[in-house]
Amino acid sequence: xxxxxxxxxxxxxxxxxxxxxxxxxxxxxxxxxxxxxxxxxxxxxxxxxxxxxxxxxxxxxxxxxxxxxxxxxxxxxxxxxxxxxxxxxxxxxxxxxxxxxxxxxxxxxxxxxxxxxxxxxxxxxxxxxxxxxxxxxxxxxxxxxxxx
Length: 148
Fold this sequence. Notes:
Elements: H1 25-45, E1 70-73, E2 79-81, E3 84-86, H2 91-102, E4 113-117, H3 123-135, E5 141-144
Parallel strand pairs: 1-4, 4-5
Antiparallel strand pairs: 1-2, 2-3
């Protein structure tokens, strides 16, 4: 809060003249309040999501990496497990057979299943496959959006 108190040779002794200095105190007060609000709000805005990420360590050289089991959803709702055609009703049974052949030591529902859908597949068809897998215990599902 600045004011000129000395007489500047004006006409009237009560004429203080024009004060052209900017009062920055309210500006600083507002900026500090905003800083405190953001410092409190930002940590609350970050939501932690638990992710099951694979380790970033590559396999040793010479180790054969097994090919993933792909569930392909084609246009029109046609389903394939790898190259084998199947239907939505037989999907989990056929998938269990294929996964058991690949890795007999691990239960099929504990193995990762990859889903790749054609660009023109309807969302309802895609979600029907996802729901069918989850209803039958296949919770480790990964989505593929490009060619492997």
